[in-house]
Amino acid sequence: MTKNIAIIRGDGIGPEIMAEAISVLNRIAEKFGHTFNYTEAPMGGEAIDKFEDPLPQSSLDTCLNSDSVLLSAVGGPKWDSVPKEKRPERGLLRLRAGMELYANIRPAQLFDELRDASPLKPSIVDKGIDFVVVRELIGGAYFGEHRTEKLDGEYYAQDIMAYSEHEIERIAHVAFQTAQKRRKAVCSVDKANVLDSSKLWRKVVTKVAESYPDVTLSHMYVDNCAMQLVKDPSQFDVIVTENLFGDILSDEASMITGSIGMIPSSSLGDGTRGLYEPIHGSAPDIAGTDTANPIGMILSAAMMLRYSFDMSKEADAVEKAVDSALKAGFRTVDAMSEGKTRLGCRAMGKTICDMI
Ligand code: NAD
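^ thats the input. predicted complex w/ nicotinamide-adenine-dinucleotide below
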């Protein structure tokens, strides 16, 4: 098969971890007889420097014309003082909206080999952590109107959190369909005791549930969910929630599974094209030191193979190689523990390639 992949190398550690993901994809292409063509689509800080725009139209077009998009991470202190509309994160928000990627899917699974890396007590971890957060990605407070003005001598700021029925409906379908392939339980998280947008959320999710009689639906307030995630994460299968709550809960979810450098994510819309990225940022504090963990980026490439290209065998091969590298005791510094062998970013990428 031939696939055209748009590559956003990003900022900070981005180019380092992307290079390892591309090596892994090339190894897969060689082993399984595929051709992967890569086209660069500058975004974030790199694009601001080159084009004074965090997402030039040419980059968006490259992404829209590709079979899928692989992104590392964007941003860094160098661009912290640029105007709001020009910030690297705006490029990412515009890309998600431009590609109409409304569903962000983030698995939270504890690798057996990394049980020690979880900050939770062994008695909690031993019950198992294996759930998925399905986050609505292009609605809610991040996409509502933002306004700051001076009223009666003091500043006043507001951000509108709004949802329409169809926006809730389509993400609910993604959650129920995800649950059908897993343990068939959806927990919808909202703040329906206070927010109107949450009341609508709960009503629509409950209605969509009628089409999935094989899936159990429960509801939970977001503050309780934040507590339950550290008290007993084994209770969750699929969590579905709106954009802002999902942003916070999915970071919490990734933290309880150990290193932030290990977790992939996918953002999907109605077609097969998706945006695949590790959940972490551009880690400017370790950029250029060859110490970044490339596994989240490599597993994002595996998710792309599985979900956008329907290449399950190939995705399995990547995931098994990562598992083998961890079982053999290889670790980057962020996941290091006693008795393990420390590798840099490049060496970890090469080890995984060799194990495919
Ligand atoms: P971060 O995720 O970049 O870093 C948090 C901590 O985790 C740092 O100590 C970092 O060194 C470490 N870390 C992250 N990824 C790692 C990896 N692969 N291997 C080893 N260690 C890793 O978050 P931050 O420091 O809050 O943000 C840095 C920049 O990234 C900011 O400009 C922020 O806006 C941006 N950011 C971008 C995205 C994105 O592109 N999707 C997401 C989050 C943050």
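Residues 13, 73-76, 89, 92, 260-261, 277, 280-286, 292-293, 296, 334 surround nicotinamide-adenine-dinucleotide (CB under 6 Å).
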